[in-house]
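explain this:
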Amino acid sequence: MEGLPSLEGATMDKKQLWFTLWDAGRGTSIWIRTPNGKDHWIDLGRSATFSPIKCFSRLGLNRSIDFLIVSYPDWSHLRDLPSIKKNYMEIRSLARSLTMPGSGAYAKRLSRHWREYKNLAENFSSSCFADEADTHLSQNGGAIYELYGLPHGTRARNPQLSGTPVISKLNTSLVVMILYAGVLFVCPGDIEPLGWRELWYRNSASMKRLIDHSHARFLVAPRRGHKHAYCEEMMQAITPHAVFVNSVWGHSTIHSGYRSDPLGVVYVESEYRRCFTPSRKGYVQVIVQPSGEYCVRQCHS
């Protein structure tokens, strides 16, 4: 089947963590199989012709999403949400950016994903941010989750920022960090430099603990690698070994630093790679062993 990862390893050894970045065209879609067999997703993007959710459901695995994280309520992160009803019975837990789209967006006849998101956010209104029960390592087979975000309208405290800029729009994206067996994944949604600098100013101690306890670090490029989202401070803080860059749209330009700045990892047998991009209807996947060893592979449909 196109775009489907082999799940042999997950069946043979549930202590592995699987991190999969799907090709979602302009959007972002990340599936995580935790070491204790739970299915988590970060964002629900899709392309015009390919749905990761529909593709994944054909494997006949868990009929629920144990933990859904919506980093930013943009259509490129939510376009696959209507597929949930057709392919899953339920979403068990949700964490989302506290920013909501304008009220008029829900009224658009063709914006079904907005309406689905509104219903979802209302159903989880009492636990819409980082629910400890779902982020605690005891719930995820030893995988540690940390979620960082800034509500819309937050004023920056960082004295290095000129004036008191108000955090809005893309800078309210959740930044998700996942650490397992010394391998760290950083998923910053669509956050741009202002938002990262303020998050780092407020949360650097917590973020550094995860970074300092990692021997391999993978960064999902913010805003799919768009040049305006490149943040030198982010790259210096994380010092990623490899960056995942999803497709950008139209005439957008990917910042060259995502391809040149990472430290690099061995891919397959001996090829050295700094940057990975999912192919059409494909994915990039990292499988982490409990020993801390990992392998990176790429599917070409």
The chain is about 25% helix and 25% strand. Residues 7-12, 126-131 have pLDDT under 50 and may be disordered. The radius of gyration is 18 Å. The first helix runs from residue 8 to 12.
